[in-house]
Amino acid sequence: MKRRKTEKKQKSYGLRVLLAIDQLFNVVLLNGSEDMTISGKVGYNALTTKKKRWVIAEKAINTLFFFQPNHCYESIEWDEV
Question: What are phi and psi of 4, to 5 degrees?
Answer without folding.
Answer: -70, 150
